[in-house]
Amino acid sequence: MMKIKAVIVEDSRLARNELKELIKEHEEIEIIGEAENVDDGFELITGTNPDLLFLDINMPEKDGFELLGMLDVVPVTVFTTAYDEYAIKSFEYNALDYLLKPISPKRFADAVNKVKEKISSDEAKEYTREKHNENSQIFIKDGEKCWLVKIGDISLFEIVGNYTRVYFEDNNPLIYKSLNQIELRLPEDCFFRANRQQIINIKHIKTVVPWFNGKFKLTLMSGAEVEISRRQSYSFKERLSI
Question: For position 242, what pLDDT does the model report?
Answer without folding.
Answer: 66
